[in-house]
Design brief:
By secondary structure, this protein is an alpha/beta fold. The chain has one domain: TIM Barrel (Alpha-Beta Barrel). It has 15 helices and 10 strands. Strands 1, 2, 3, 4, 5, 8, 9 and 10 form an 8-stranded parallel β-sheet that branches. Strand 1, helix 2 and strand 2 form a beta-alpha-beta unit. Helix 2 packs across helix 14 and helix 13 runs parallel beside helix 14. The longest helix is centred in the middle third of the chain and has 19 residues. The structure holds zinc ion. Zinc ion binds next to loops.
Length: 341
């Protein structure tokens, strides 16, 4: 059988399970600058390479003046600005825009619907990133009651579905996720979530229950939850060394998920081109997360894993110490202080 026109792309993937190398670029759209500054550039690079990427949209706010003031505000930001492993939003968009965005606190996805429609029309995948407030989720996740999170997620899901079509995937802001999120994701029937760094795709669990949906981890990352390319950027790694490091990491697996933020990696379109070139040179095929998920659903459990990821997910991480994947495979994520993920 041959996949013909009009057939979903994953149909083609099912025809050759386990024999090709798959790469997916995951973008978390946290801020309005991700859409205004990053998306047009990423879309152009994708078009040049003839590939599709996966984007997770924060429909709600990404800045929250009240939270900023209550958590030390300027003092906290100064500490983050000195972080040698990550790049703060202020460095990404500059103080004037940071102040403006914080003061206006406009919802991200909700205020830029036209650009997202364009993204979807171009064939990229659009999933959901959290609920109505990225800052509150990132900073106070463990204090929030499950029913509050559930209602918030459900409202954003309804909004995304109405505007762009039902999203297949869900990711939590800052990788702040636990059994409550797994339960919510299962109940709302997403096809997959992306709430893990390292390890292999698996069915996460809540209580004694294994969820039906898949968890697709980020496989290449810097320390904590800092994206690999941003981490290199914070250390001023020369672009040629970044690509050399990437090539080396790519060679360790045939199932790779790299992640970033359009307001940082997306703006560096020359580097992005080099990254895409390295990925295709190493024989990888670009797929969306939804296509990866469909591959997982299609692969019979009796045939073993439909991918070859490193046996320990952390092997591809650099100094990732506070992210844990428990033995039950629920892949819950520890606390992290950064609010940019
Ligand atoms: Zn985020």
């Amino acid at each position: 059988m041959v996949a013909g026109h009009g057939q979903p792309v994953w149909y083609d993937l099912r025809m050759q399970p386990g024999h090709d190398k798959l790469f997916s670029f995951r973008w978390d759209i946290d801020h309005r600058a991700c859409i205004t500054d990053g998306l047009p550039r990423i879309m152009r690079v994708c078009e040049e390479f003839g590939v599709k990427n996966t984007f997770f949209i924060n429909m709600g706010r990404s800045t929250n003046l009240k939270e900023w003031l209550s958590k030390g505000g300027l003092k906290g930001s100064k500490a983050k600005l000195k972080d040698m492993e990550a790049i703060h939003l202020i460095k990404k968009i500059g103080w004037p825009r940071f102040i403006l965005e914080t003061a206006l606190s406009r919802p991200v996805g909700r205020s830029l619907v036209g650009s997202l429609e364009k993204l979807v029309r171009a064939g990229h995948e659009l999933g959901q990133h959290g609920g109505s407030d990225h800052v509150v989720w990132s900073r106070r996740f463990f204090e929030l009651p499950e029913e509050v999170i559930a209602q918030d997620v459900e409202q954003s899901l309804a909004e995304i579905s109405r505007l762009f079509g039902t999203p297949a995937g869900f990711t939590s802001p800052g990788f702040k996720s636990d059994e409550r999120i797994t339960r919510i994701v299962a109940r709302l029937k997403y096809r997959y979530d992306g709430d893990a760094i390292g390890g292999e795709p698996h069915h996460p669990s809540f209580g004694q229950t294994h969820a039906r949906h898949w968890r697709i981890p980020v496989t290449l990352c810097g320390p904590r939850t800092v994206p690999l390319l941003e981490w290199h950027g914070a250390r001023n790694t020369p672009p040629s060394d970044i690509i050399a490091d990437l090539r080396q990491r790519l060679d360790q697996s045939d199932w790779v998920v790299l992640y970033g933020h359009p307001c940082y990696e997306g703006v560096k379109d020359d580097l992005l081109r080099e990254v895409f070139r390295a990925v295709t040179d190493r024989g990888f095929r670009f797929v969306t997360h939804e296509q990866m998920a469909e591959r997982l659903y299609a692969w019979p459990a009796s045939s073993g894993a439909p991918f070859s990821a490193p046996s320990t997910g952390q092997a591809t991480l650099s100094n990732a110490t506070n992210i844990t994947s428990d033995s039950s495979g629920s892949g819950t994520i520890g606390r992290c202080s950064r609010n940019g993920a």
